Each structure stands twice: as C-alpha cells, then as structure tokens.
C-alpha cells in the first residue's frame, strides 16, 4: 500500500481484537484499550509502505490509549525506534520520564525496546510512524539516540526532517532515494547532536568546544591534510581534551570528520556526472582510496560504484 502525502485518509470500523493483531504485524506488540464508554469496535485506519528503504506506517484510531509494557517487550523484543509524526487530532505520548501532548506537526521518538504509552482519550488521532532499525540507529548515532525525544512542530531541524519525509512519500519509487534517505539521517543526526549539547548536565565548556569543533570541521574537512590533531591544534586544546568533550555526541572527532567527508563524496557521486569516483573522493578530503572505500561501505552499506549506478539511472 502507498502512503499518500495528503491527510485524506479514511477510517472505518475496526474490531479491537483484529486491530491489535494487525498492529502487532506492523509495529510490534501493543495493548490497545478502547474508549471505556464505547463498544469493542474502533474507528481506525492502518496502512504501510516502504520508500527508500524506510518502512512507514500510518495509524489512525479513536482508542482511549495504547501502551507497550515490559511483558510485551519480553515476548516481542523491540527492533526499531519509531519516529511518530502527529498528523490529525492530538495524543499524549510518554516514554521514561518524558511526556508531551502532540499536536499536528509535532514529532516524538519512541524506543520499542522500552515501555511507552500513547493516550487519545477516545478522540480520533492519525499518526505517521517512521520505523528506524534499532541496530542501525545505534551504530549511526550511539548514545545520542534514545527514546523519549519530543520535537515541536516549529523546531527548524524537525521542519527539515519533515520536508525530506514529504519528498520520500510523494515520490516513493524514485531511484535516487538512497540519497534522500541519507539526507534525512544527516538532519536527524544534527538534531540529536543539538539535543546532546543542550542537556543541562553537560559542562558548558564541553558544549562550547564541540560547537567550535563542528564549525571548524565543516570549514576544513575537504583538506586531506586536516586530521583530528589538526583540529585540536586549531582549537588550542590537547587531542585528549577534544576527545573527552566529544563523548557527549556519541562520536569521536575522527568519526565526525570522516562522516563529513564520506557524506560529501556520496552527494558528489549522486550529483556530479562526468567525474570519476577517485576524483570525487579526493575532492571530499580523502587522501587514499582504500580508506575511502572502507568508510563508504561502512557508512552506506554498499560500494560507491552502486551509488554511481543509481545516479546514472536517475
């Protein structure tokens, strides 16, 4: 089934037990509790789609609440983070010590490996859920990603994420969507880094140093002579001091520098016909091809030649 970019999704009567069963197939084990005053039938909608390798589900219902507890997790381990975008109605989402009312345009990140609760008070709510493979997310973002992140509709990085998702949904079969999905992950990573830097327990000196380091990396990463020691020297701190500060981001300075370079090379491969992969790798700041190929395959899961082939077909 295709998820359309508009919100004209029709709901229909849905037996509660049938909805529980179908929801488990799509999202995992959740307890669905109907409005206490109502019958054992929901006004509901459930559809799924895949675009660019991302699985998406559109879930609409007028239940009292839906929750996922420890027993559900034990019998159905969580394999995803769910990025939930509120589209119609409102819902109260909670995980851990974080809870928030989600209005249309708001987003909330849920870790399926931890208990969570969605309350609707019997009112109809429609949500788009982006299923992010948990293992891959932890590999990409480390300690920066966790369940219980509330993203307001007006958040600038949240707006950018929604714009990329709209592109994916409106053109589900576009051959270059691997590039679009990577753009989504890049913006998502920036949002997670911003949240990590703004945590109250993080020493202000560390936040300031990392902010300066990120700006310096963005300016100099295309220079193959610019290494992590160069970064530390330009900031006037020891390499060890720089590495300690970067612990709040879930990455090392080397990881971030390498990610800038490999992402730049990937973008160039997608959008620079007439250039060889070798030229583009060197232009992104890599000093040898073996390092580039290892970094590219680790980051994107395939060789750069495959991205080149996708670009030529698009």
Question: Could you explain the architecture of this structure?
Answer:
With 314 residues, this protein is of the alpha+beta class. The protein has twelve helices and twelve strands. The protein has helices spanning 16-27, 70-75, 134-141, 156-170, 177-198, 204-220, 228-235, 239-245, 253-271, 277-283, 289-300, 304-313, and strands spanning 12-15, 31-33, 41-51, 54-61, 65-68, 80-88, 91-95, 98-102, 107-111, 116-119, 125-133, 149-151. The strands form two sheets. A seven-stranded antiparallel beta sheet has the order 1-3-4-11-6-9-12, sandwiched between helices.
What keywords describe this structure?
314 residues; alpha+beta; seven-stranded antiparallel sheet; five-stranded antiparallel sheet; 12 helices; disordered N terminus; disordered C terminus
Largest sheet descriptor: 7 strands, antiparallel
Helix content: 40-55%
Per DSSP, the total helix count is: 12
For the largest beta sheet, what order do the strands appear in spatially?
1-3-4-11-6-9-12
What's the shape?
globular
Say what oligomer this is. Answer: single chain
**Helix-strand makeup class:** alpha+beta
Uncertain ranges: 1-7, 308-314
Determine the strand fraction and express it as a percent band: 15-25%
Beginning-to-end CA distance, first to last residue: 23 Å
Q: Give the SSE string.
A: EHEEEEHEEEEEEHEHHHHHHHHH
Rounded average pLDDT = 85
- Strand runs, count: 12
Compute the CA-based radius of gyration: 22 Å
